[in-house]
Amino acid sequence: MPAAPVSPGDAPEPEAGRGDDADSRGLTARVPQLLKAMRSVGSGLELHSTLVRICETAAELANARYAAIGVVAEDGDGLADFVHHGVDAETARLIGRLPDGHKGLLGALIHDPAPVRLAELTEDPRSCGFPEHHPPMRSFLGVPLCVQGKTFGNLYLAEKRGGGLFDDYDLDMVRVLAIEAGIAIGNARLYEAAKQRERWIDGSVAVTTALLSGGDPEDALQVVAEQARRLSGSTAGIVLLPADEGGLEIVAVAADQRPKALGAVIPPESELASELLDGRAVFLADAAGDPRTITHLFRDYGPVMMLPLRSDGRVHGALVTPRARGGRPFTETERTLAAQFASQAALALMMAEAQRDRERLAVYEDRDRIARDLHDLVIQRLYATGMMLESAQRRSGVPEVRRGVGKAVDELDVTIQEIRTAIFALQQGPAEVPSGLRAQVLREIKTAAIPLGFTPSYRFLGPVDTAVGELTRNNLIAALREALSNAFRHAGASRIDVVVDATVTLPDGRPGVRLTVTDDGVGIPDIGRRSGLTNLERRAGSLGGDSWFGPGTGENGAGTTVTWQAPY
């Protein structure tokens, strides 16, 4: 029953000559109906269906055409929910927005929760008028609903069937029903709170499992975003990690539409980024109108929860769950559960990072061992073999043999130099990230050459350093890293070609950059996980680009060609 303006009216006077005995007989005659109504009200545990059932039962008990329950917001300002009965779906659609309880009789009953009985709604001084398409209503009965000593909301009845007025019997019966309704609502709220906590716990388990499974870190962070979005009932779930240049970078987005913010950075001068990096949660009532949202990223949203991923005194990132403009604000319970979820995710993130550090340390130790073996065993044996060949060359009297042995010795010298270069690369620590796209691509290729056992070929076309913007560059490097990793882990390739072309024109006419990584490996199986390719598509889509794959350069088209492109 959408909000209606109401004006003063007088409650009907008790009927003349009606004594206590008559009252008792009239009330007793309706007791079976009341008991039936009370059983109906207490027959379920789901909150919304309980509220609907209370409306239907109260309307039947008081013979009212319309009934509604306005649920008071946690801060006592307006209504958080409004459940109605008697108004058909088409009429409700025409009326539009449900009442918010900030004005009119409904707003007055929030601040003064006492029974109200009116003979004529339109004559009440608290009236503010019916909205267009609202059905006419005259008689009115309002009763507060109390749960565990606190006002939960108000039960409204309007338009007594037959054109009469709500009498004392109706008020008494609805009061008794309101008491039972308060108990039923209390039980439903406890049940929903328990189910809600159970869902958040299950979500935390899913996140912990994903982060500690040793799989792709981007997949795990995507699970965090998806779970946070689902559990909080938000429009999107967003995970941010500290950016190299300061601030917070968006690394995972879960939303119905293609994410456009993936890879974007909230700058360090942002007040929101500073608060999150300091470990403080931020709650925005309306992100679109909040002056702290200095970027465009959150200006299309309404209520937003921004929670630091903090564990052991360290902030690992942030979790953001926005709702659409005009959406329902986050309750205190939702904020508490989301904060606990973020803490659990941060702990899992820290443990996953420690696990990756251990694995990385094992890799470094293995690299040191390989470097020592190459230096102490392989190079020494090659050097000894070269000495033996040189001795044989001097003793040989056949010119063709001398030339062939000399060529073999030269090849050994080149091989020794290449091994020494590999040893040097194995002993190097992580280098500073270069600033230009060309330098970053070369660094990724050099890093991939060590596990691959060979250096991929590369080619650059166009102004790759000057034309490609930072956001596109960051996503392209991540796509290159993913493609090279797939070629190493799954393709078994012996040749990889990398092309970065900044001269392409995208299908929509915009200039863009295209990354092509081609190998001669085994190709992509028809079935199995393709999370890496999904990540590439997600990154390209977030920029308005695209990604796809096709046959490679091996025999009969064996291998894979991965193409990734996006506007500058």
From TrEMBL:
Organism expressing this protein natively: Streptomyces avermitilis
InterPro entries for this protein: GAF, GAF-like_dom_sf, HATPase_C_sf, HATPase_dom, Sensor_HK_TwoCompSys, Sig_transdc_His_kin_sub3_dim/P
Domain of life: Bacteria
Recorded GO MF terms: phosphorelay sensor kinase activity; protein dimerization activity
Lineage: Bacteria, Bacillati, Actinomycetota, Actinomycetes, Kitasatosporales
Annotated GAF domain residues: 46-195, 216-359
Name by which UniProt lists this protein: Histidine kinase
Region span, Disordered: 1-26
Biased composition annotated in UniProt, kind: Basic and acidic residues: 15-24
Domain Histidine kinase/HSP90-like ATPase: 471-568
GO CC terms: membrane
Keyword vocabulary terms for this entry: Kinase, Transferase, Two-component regulatory system
